[in-house]
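Before drawing any conclusions, I looked closely at one protein, both as residues and as discrete backbone shape codes, quoted below without any editing:
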Amino acid sequence: MFYGYIGDSRGLSDVIPGLLQGRSGILELFVNRYFLSLKVQEGQVVEFKCDLNLAGKRSVNHYNLLVYCVAEMLANPEGFFAFYEDTRMKGIPLSNPVSGDELMIQATIVRKELDSIIEKVISPYAIFKALDKRAEVSFFEGKNVVEAISLAKAPIVSVVRRIKDLLSEGKLDIYEFREGEMTEELEIDYVMEKVPLKRVNILAILESLKTSSFSGIAKISSPTYTINLFYENGDIFAVYPPDFDLFEFLLSPDKNAELSLVSLDRSIVRFVALRYLGKPDIDTVSSNFMEISKLFLGLSKYKKNALLLISERKGDRFVIFREGRLVITLMEVDGTFKLSPSLLFEEPFFVSLYFFSKVDNIASKVYLFMINEIISIFMKHSPSKINSIVLREVAKYPFLVFSEGKIHLVKNPNEEEERQLLNLLSFMLDVSNQEFGEERQEEELELQLRPFKDIFKVLDVERYLKVRQ
């Protein structure tokens, strides 16, 4: 078995023609966010699998499709490879096997031709409009570059050159710019960076994030702590650390703290939150004991949703996969995020892997806050009774601890534990009702919660408490 890193076009050429020569087995490539698997017999590619989805399309020119996949890899030839001396693979058969040398030569020519027209078509997924009724032009109507190449009977080089000529002659135009999943470019933007809370109204800012459908992270930091509020379309869905008392903080903000707003695409915010609130499936394993290329190839091959966290000396690299496609790579250095497209990691590094899971905890924080407010009422009017009741109930929940008159989380609760918190809230409301009566209970709660009125609005607390109603 051979595996390793590919850093440039020469490296890709060394792998495909060089490694395959005279060999039989399976070559897997993850380059330029594409996954490609080649079945090789005595140096000839006989079958392949690729990411490009042409489901439902008939009469696909598989040779053209294969060459196009390699040509796209040459656009940014960085990634990983693995070669197995194993021929058990079910892929797309080629009617005429192709050698590694021929495949690379054809892909290199196609790459140069594509580069010469890319400014005109903007993206390989932009849709063509035929401005001439002749069959040779109308063939391209409603197709993008990938489909035109893959559905044409003519050799791929001829198809790409024909597209170039028809665009230059004004017989072909672009009428719809539709990005494919393989080419999406996600960005990161600091809307606000390290602004002292003494200069701003934090509640007004959080309210504006809600109305503007903000997605990203509101980061509150000081020399001794950092709090992350994770947003998706204007809604806070998680807080880190999970035991942080958000309600009390927003009621009396630390004026020495600073606020940063990191805008992220809504599709990746929950992946970033995994780093702080998820449970890793692989936890900080040294690169001395793990081959990183196998992870990249496996996540892509099996179409996983995951966060791959690479901890290097200079910072943490967030590598996000959605359905097996690498969508973005971020570097966090000293609490600041920036784009980091390179896949070359500084040795030694440590690897953590988080498969996608639910990390929402704002409902749990609302339930816990309400429980503690009820406890506060009991402590004023019936302290001896509440101590015995709370201690008995909290003992049933290993993720909770009772200290200094309040219940605290010891971990980020999962969905079942969130339901248990809601049940505990219902129990405490019932006990309060029995102790004080419904009318007095409502009066006491209204008095207790009055200072948090604006905070309830910002956090949209009502939607979580409707369950109780």
The two ends are 61 Å apart (CA to CA). Residues 109 and 164 are 14 Å apart (CA to CA).
